[in-house]
Write a structure and sequence with these properties.
Strand content: 5-15%
Largest sheet: 5 strands, mixed
Strand order of the largest sheet: 1-2-5-3-4
Order of helices and strands: HHEEHEHHHEHHHHHHHEH
Distance between the termini: 46 Å
């Protein structure tokens, strides 16, 4: 049950595996050098934040934000870490973009979406869908797009295509099962993949997002809204896939609870000896199942959903930094609206780049 809940929560904070992560670089070469742009209309004025900074220089020093400079172009980058569909994240995103517009330094906005996902959402938003559906689908990326395009700033769909991500997830499941069944070489491959992804995608330190960002009171207060709206939006946008995924998670939760109920039900002490002889085998089986689930989820979430997509998102952000320089925008800022789980890894990738 806990693993099922964690699966939803991790995706909310964020969406064949080769023996190494080198394949991720191949994905970048397959992407177009001209990301899609979107247009819409929206106009609101929000409060201006003070000129303070965290994470490497800039104008912001508030939770869920990282600001730093892309090392080659020296263009300012602001990463807005969001809990998807959280009203606090929607408000933060709108405030940040409006602040930079008012300061006349906003170059472009990169959002964690691809053309397929974005078009599906916009189709539902612009159709005859019920007000309830439109309300459920409102999120921080739509807010970012609306306010940026209202000031004629480009919005970039910077994420990996969802079809590629889905293929990678399926292959990650397949290869993880293969590696688990091969303790001689498979376990070392699995460990190398996950440990390398953890190092690159989950850095920690004073210049990265930390516990205070993830457990911010405003974010936690609105977390129930996210945990309700995220799966609902998933079902609305992809009914078949959403139903299968959520049904699987609910089934896993139910089986876990049933297993716990069966072992914690009333004990007949006259059978104590027989129970003692059975418990070790049950404990071993539970441990093995837990280890299998942990290995599977670690590779899928940390390697496929986080690390591989971090490379793609970082490349999109860097590309916008170079465009800002080419356009002669001088002092400018590229904003990226991302799930919080992506922010630290993307900052690490961009700031540790060696060349153009």
């Amino acid at each position: 049950m806990m693993l099922a809940f964690c699966s939803i929560f991790v995706v909310t904070l964020s969406c064949s595996i080769s023996p190494s992560l080198s394949f991720r670089r191949q994905l970048l070469l397959q992407r177009s050098t001209h990301p899609c742009t979107v247009s819409s209309s929206y106009n609101r004025i929000y409060s201006i934040y003070p000129d303070t900074a965290r994470g490497g220089g800039g104008v912001f020093d508030i939770p869920q934000l990282l600001q730093f400079y892309e090392p080659v172009t020296n263009v300012s980058v602001v990463l807005v870490g969001a809990m998807h569909y959280n009203p606090a994240s929607i408000q933060l995103t709108t405030n940040v973009i409006d602040t930079l517009v008012q300061k006349n330094v906003l170059s472009s906005v990169v959002i964690e979406s691809c053309e397929t996902r974005w078009n599906r959402t916009m189709l539902l938003q612009n159709s005859e869908s019920s007000p309830f559906i439109k309300q459920v689908l409102k999120n921080e990326m739509m807010a970012a797009s609306n306010i940026a395009t209202s000031f004629n700033r480009p919005v970039i769909l910077g994420d990996q295509c969802i079809n590629v991500t889905n293929q990678r997830i399926a292959l990650a499941f397949k290869d993880t099962i293969r590696d688990i069944l091969n303790p001689f070489n498979g376990w070392s491959r699995l460990y190398a993949d996950v440990s390398q992804a953890v190092t690159s995608s989950l850095p920690t330190g004073p210049n990265y997002l930390g516990a205070s960002d993830f457990f911010d009171s405003k974010l936690l207060f609105n977390a129930p809204v996210s945990l309700l709206r995220y799966p609902l939006a998933f079902l609305i946008k992809a009914p078949l896939t959403g139903t299968v995924t959520l049904s699987t998670l609910l089934l896993a939760s139910y089986l876990s609870s049933m297993d716990g109920a069966s072992t914690s039900s009333g004990i007949d002490w006259s059978d104590f000896v027989s129970i003692v002889s059975v418990v070790p085998s049950e404990l071993l089986m539970s441990t093995l199942i837990f280890a299998f689930e942990l290995a599977l989820l670690s590779r899928v979430f940390i390697v496929t959903i986080l690390a591989e997509r971090n490379d793609v998102l970082a490349e999109s952000i860097v590309r916008e930094c170079f465009k800002a320089v080419e356009n002669g925008e001088g002092k400018s800022t590229v904003v990226a609206v991302l799930g919080m789980a992506h922010c630290n890894g993307i900052k690490k990738i961009i700031t540790e780049r060696k060349g153009g």
